[in-house]
Amino acid sequence: MGTFPIILMTVLGGWAMLATVLALVWGGRLRRERLDHEAAQQHNARYRAAVRRLEERAAATAAQFEALERDYLALKRNLDADAGAQAREQGQPAAGRAFPMVVVDSLDISAEIGLLFEHVARVAAAIRGYSAFTRGHHGPEPAKARYDLLWLSDCLHTFDRVGRALAGGNQQALAAACEELLSMYDMYPRDGSGYDSRDTFRRLAERVPLGAVTEAMRSIALKVASAPDAGATGIRHVEPERPQAAAPVPPATAVPVAAGAA
């Protein structure tokens, strides 16, 4: 046999051995990747099951919270009614208790409406600070005045829906208006776009805090949603109860007033 066939067979044998080794290495790598993939799928399945259990637990907790909120509102109404009845029996107004001025189907939202008015006043005072009268006609305008004025007016221009719902006695419209305002107010601290509402309300956090007004709107939405007849519409304004006038003094015991007395 010549030298060339021997060299060719040696080269072919070496190539076959190298291909076999590479195939074994790649096969082992593929097996490990497949095992890792299967393990990751199992982990994902366990995590999804855990998330579903947490969601079910959260839904059950939310239902319990709503039931407790309804029970609390019912007990509060009963206590207020008992206190009012006892005060009327004694002929005196209930002391130390603010009489509800705005009632939605027996739900008192006077405090929330008051907080909304306070927020409107704070925003108006903040806007006033950007006027030419305040800074002087020739004073420099703040660098971010146009953005501040945009967001300060933006946080008020949808309050008309709350006013129309209260004036029209529409409970569903009131809940929808509060939900819309909540979505807007929750967006303000997170928006970092070119208009950047987050920067405006961060710099004006002391003058225009958003926490109280957000809680007031959330409280209104929760009270309307937890009402026994949430689908009904009936908003009524209640006048504060006035104490009864004292009985007139009988003429026999009346004290005469001297002529010319002031």
Q: Notable features of this structure?
A:
three-stranded antiparallel beta sheet; elongated; 8 helices; mainly alpha
Explain the overall architecture.
With 262 residues, the protein is mainly alpha-helical. It has helices at 3-90, 110-128, 132-135, 145-154, 159-168, 171-187, 197-203, 211-226; strands spanning 102-104, 107-108, 235-237. It contains eight helices and three strands. The protein has a three-stranded antiparallel sheet with strand order 2-1-3. Helix 2 packs antiparallel against helix 4. Residues 231-262 have low confidence and may be disordered.
Put simply, the count of helices is 8
Helix % is 55-70%
Q: What would you call the shape?
A: elongated
Main beta-sheet strand count, sense and barrel state = 3 strands, antiparallel
Q: What's the N-to-C terminus distance?
A: 150 Å
Annotation, overall tally of beta strands = 3
The low-confidence parts are 231-262
Structural class: mainly alpha
- Gyration radius (Cα, Å) is 37 Å
Average residue-wise pLDDT: 78
Q: What percent of residues are in strands? A: under 5%
Helices and strands, in order, run as HEEHHHHHHHE
What strand order characterises the main sheet? 2-1-3
Topology:
Layout: H1 3-90, E1 102-104, E2 107-108, H2 110-128, H3 132-135, H4 145-154, H5 159-168, H6 171-187, H7 197-203, H8 211-226, E3 235-237
Antiparallel strand pairs: 1-2, 1-3
Helix pairs in contact: 2-4, 2-8, 5-6, 6-8
